[in-house]
Specification:
heterodimer, A: alpha/beta, 26% strand, B: 290 residues, mainly alpha, ABC transporter involved in vitamin B12 uptake, BtuC, globular
Chain lengths: 285, 290
């Protein structure tokens, strides 16, 4: 018997992983999310793109069930979000105290805590799950390392393993690629790709336009409202992007095509990557 | 033989034996719980709570209730007050802690000033009086100490998640608020248990100093707790002997020994060099110079 305060709800076999219907969230009377509706199917991977303050974190909080929307409906596998144990969260790296005295193994074992239950210690099944999760992200050899002794990409993979040990079926990743070098970014994306083929659904939040290009099948463009939802080729066009990024987006018509440069202000790393979109002669104002 | 005599001589006095047992118990319990405070950056909160429970102790003393009960009530009341004041967002949490702690402490001193033996009582409550521990006191100290250690063991993995990543605690559907209050209750119990050994004013040193020293030495939380407890016991025992032979106040002496140990380890810092090499190899967002 595992003692838990509340039992996680059953998954409805035909339901979407995430379904939001006309969700409104107000913070101090000001709308933080306006009328958001979208569905995420099993094994689907989307990027939520928007400038800082667009409501990406608020959206995550609504999906996890920390925040109850004032209007609208949230469904995770067919039921309300706040009791599900299947939602894994990979925080932004700057939200973690990397001096904290835990090893890679300890950090991943934390994902098991709810499954273990109160007043019990990790058993063989839990150790098996942790070992498997570490193997999945290629961090098996690092299990004795203290988490601060890892590179940025390795740190992200450890937190991904933590979500896998939790047996998450929906992964929420907050700016996972920010601050990583390109090989680490590619390695992480390759792992995410493997996971979605196993039926794990993935939502990646980012403010960085450059990270979205050519890497996701579907992009949700967010700035309080859901401005666009579709394949990158449709969404990442200057007139649409301008609605989300507003004055932070500089659009330069060049002979090679239209260049949109997002000025992602206030982030800890300035990674201004120009984005070339459209063919010459088209998309030009 | 001379050293042995030096060590055994004080134990001829029953009050010294009781003081030693109390010092050892407190030296284990405070650093183990203090590990969580250090890891969560809650040192200031621990200090504030130690002061804020004063009126509870005084009231319980005046009415004749168990001191622990009064301390628990005021510990919880001041924690709730801090939460209510900082929730409105016009006042920062650290400011709210400052206001509640000072106000509550003032109430405690005012209450205590109605008692005739005011000056001595206040000095004992503030700085401890480990040589005055009675058999009953000692029983209470040991029982409360064991209770706190038991709670730490029972809720270790949940408390660890709360300390490391509170958002994970929410995602894992742990009772976050309940665990927060549990830590608070444990802190209040620990403060009551340690009251006579170090007193309220120096409580924070017992909670934080050995645990901070241990954080420089240990790589995992259980070993950090073990090292912290070993340092706490050693500092308290050494401090007690020094105070006995030099005839200085025992609580402050224990704290001074713990502080000296911290400064020594900090100056040597065995891990700093390795960390710096690592930081230079893999610049992350936390590396210096960004």
């Amino acid at each position: 018997m595992v003692f838990r305060f509340r039992r996680p709800p059953e998954h409805q076999p035909t339901a979407a992983t995430v379904e939001l219907e006309h969700v409104w969230v107000y913070r101090k009377g000001v709308p933080a999310l306006e009328d958001i509706s979208f569905r995420l199917e099993r094994g689907e991977q989307v990027a939520v793109l928007g400038p800082n303050g667009a409501g990406k974190s608020t959206l995550f909080q609504v999906i996890v069930g920390i925040l109850r929307p004032q209007r609208g409906r949230v469904r995770i596998y067919g039921s309300g979000p706040d009791r599900h144990l299947c939602i894994g969260y990979v925080p932004q790296r700057n939200q973690i105290d990397w001096r904290f005295p835990v090893t890679v193994w300890d950090a991943v074992m934390m994902g098991r805590v709810a499954r273990i239950g109160f007043f019990r210690w990790p058993g063989p099944r839990d150790r098996e799950a942790v070992a498997q999760a570490l193997a999945e992200v290629g961090m098996d050899a690092y299990r004795e390392r203290q988490i601060g002794e890892l590179s940025g990409g390795q740190q992200q993979r450890v937190f991904l393993a933590r979500a896998l040990a939790q047996e998450a079926e929906l992964l929420l990743l907050d700016e996972p690629l920010t601050g990583l070098d390109v090989p680490s970014q590619e390695a992480l994306l390759a792992i995410l790709d493997r996971l979605r083929h196993r039926g794990i659904s993935i939502i990646v939040a980012t403010h960085d336009l450059g990270q979205v290009m050519g890497r996701y099948d579907r992009v949700l463009l967010l700035n309080r409202r859901l401005i666009a939802d579709g394949p990158p080729a449709e969404v990442l066009r200057p007139p649409i992007l301008a609605q989300a990024f507003g004055s932070h987006l500089h659009i330069l018509p060049l002979p090679e095509g239209t260049v949109a440069i997002p000025d992602t202000c206030c982030s800890n790393r300035e990674m201004v990557q120009p984005l070339v979109s459209g063919r010459p002669g088209r998309d030009r104002p | 033989m001379e050293i042995l005599a030096w060590l055994l001589d004080p134990l001829r006095f029953p009050f010294m034996v009781r003081a030693l047992v109390a010092a050892v118990t407190v030296g284990i319990v405070c650093p183990v719980l203090g590990t969580f405070l250090v890891l969560q950056g809650m040192a200031f909160f621990g200090d504030a709570l130690a002061h804020a429970i004063l009126p509870g102790i005084v009231l319980a003393f005046l009415v004749g209730w168990p001191l622990a009960l009064g301390a628990l009530l005021f510990g919880l009341a001041s924690a709730v007050a801090i939460g209510v004041i900082s929730e409105r967002e016009e006042i920062r949490e650290d400011t709210a802690i400052g206001i509640v702690f000072a106000g509550s402490f003032a109430l405690g001193v005012a209450l205590l000033s109605t008692v005739r033996s005011y000056a001595t009582d206040l000095a004992h409550i503030l700085f401890g009086n480990v040589l005055g521990v009675s058999d009953d006191d000692l029983r209470l100290i040991v029982v409360l100490g064991i209770l706190v250690l038991l709670l730490v063991v029972l809720f270790y993995k949940e408390l660890l998640v709360m300390a490391f990543d509170p958002i994970l605690a929410v995602v894992l559907r742990l009772p976050v608020r309940g665990l927060r209050y549990l830590l608070l209750v444990m802190l209040a119990i620990t403060i009551v248990a340690s009251l006579q050994t170090v007193g309220l004013a120096l409580m924070i040193a017992m909670l934080v100093t050995p645990a901070s020293t241990a954080s420089l030495l240990a790589r995992r939380v259980p070993s950090m707790m073990a090292v912290a407890a070993a340092l706490g016991v050693a500092s308290n025992v050494v401090g007690l002997y020094i105070s006995f032979y030099l005839d200085v106040a025992s609580g402050p002496t224990m704290v001074l020994v713990a502080t000296a140990v911290f400064l020594g380890v900090f100056a040597a810092d065995p891990r700093r060099r390795r960390r710096e090499v690592h930081a230079a190899m893999s610049p992350g967002p936390l590396a210096p110079g960004r």
